[in-house]
Amino acid sequence: MSPPELVPEPLTGRPLAELGLVEVSGRRRGAPLVRVHGLSEDPAYLRALQEGVSAAAPAGSAIEVRAADAERRQAAARALKAHHRSPGALGSTTRVYLVGSGKGGVGKSTVTANVAAALAADGQRVAVLDADVWGYSQPALFGVRQPPVAVPGLMLPVRSQGVRLMSIGFFVDDSEPVLWRGPMLHKALEQFLADVYWGADLDVLLVDLPPGTGDVLLTLAGLLPDAGMVVVTTPQTAARSVAARVGRMAARGSLTVTGVVENMSGSVFGSGGGAALAEELGVPLLAKIPLDEGVCRAGDRGTPAVLGPASAAVEALKALAVSLPAPRRSLVGRSLPLFT
Ligand SMILES: Nc1ncnc2c1ncn2[C@@H]1O[C@H](COP(=O)(O)OP(=O)(O)OP(=O)(O)O)[C@@H](O)[C@H]1O
Ligand SMILES: [Mg+2]
Fold first, then answer.
1. Which atom of ligand 1 is nearest to the CA of 291?
2. Is residue 85 over pLDDT 80?
3. Is the CB of 332 under 6 A from ligand 1?
4. In this structure, which of 50, 125, 182, 232 has its CB flanked by the most CB atoms within 10 Å?
């Protein structure tokens, strides 16, 4: 059993002591006293913290859990920033994937959520950045809708099913349209990377893109030069337009394509779209995910299908998650060995 100081703070995974959120000192009515300070005021959060500390503290300890005051939050923020990775640093150990497509509704968000949940269930440290600012869907796919906790200068991702989530949907009302374009959009995406505590230990960051190859893809490809793009298509999609654009970006060195995922395979509409697109781009076809009512229903329920009963689609999604090739590192901004 680990002592209470080492219990991870639930939103960041960092030990409580490292964030200055625990005091094991003094006694109350003869029992050891453990004082714990939480970063959120949410009752469920405080309960989870209480349970975690109770399990680790010596039997019979008195445990007092409360929300941290401003000074403690400031100190916790400072400690977190020591571990914090800016976009430039994300590439060193974290594998980053941009999940995109030529057209809408092909299953990018569904594939992203399921791959993330499968990797988390597999013990990896995973985050999802919902970069579909106009049509965000990760909050619904994970069944969470709560504003992220912030400490001074840093936002903490919402955690669901072991996945760290950040989405504009956590901040705005569904009825409120997000109208960002151009510089505003760039700034917002930059902040989602720089001002969010993704965690220095992150294994995989999946970025759910809006449909098409517009501003968001361009911005993120620039901010995350080591990311690999995973292109999702349906079997029947005529792949020409996305292939052309993505291919041009890749040829210029501004984008690395990891592979293609064919989703809704076996549907009555056609077949072969995934293989054709993969061939055009000169990248592997990573998976063919069958059309499956369970996948759709799980999305509506807010629990990714890979966490539910087995099916051919669930197996294909799990296999995709564990077999995703590491993105090729780009040469952007690096000096070539030739000149060193
Ligand atoms: N393999 C599948 N089997 C059945 N339904 C699926 C499958 N994949 C996705 N869907 C359903 O298709 C719809 C569109 O999926 P999703 O929202 O993931 O697509 P998207 O590409 O992210 O769309 P957008 O371009 O609007 O962001 C959803 O209702 C989803 O549940
Ligand atoms: Mg989507």
1. 3
2. no
3. no
4. 232
Rounded to whole angstroms, the Cα distance separating 262 from 146 reads 32
How many Å apart are CA 192 and CA 186, to the nearest integer? 10
The ligand 1 atom at the shortest distance from the C-alpha of residue 292 is 3
- Return the ligand 1 atom nearest residue 112 CA: 18
> How many Å lie between the centroid of ligand 2 and the Cα of residue 105?
7
User: Is 87-323 in the same CATH topology as 4-83?
Assistant: no
CATH class of 87-323: alpha beta
Residue nearest to atom 6 of ligand 1 (CA): 296
pLDDT band at 89 (very low <50, low <70, confident <90, very high): low
pLDDT in the model for residue 47: 96
Q: Do residues 283 and 256 lie in contact, with contact meaning Cβ atoms separated by under 8 Å? A: no
Fold of 4-83: GMP Synthetase; Chain A, domain 3 (3.30.300)
* Helix, strand, or coil (residue 215): helix
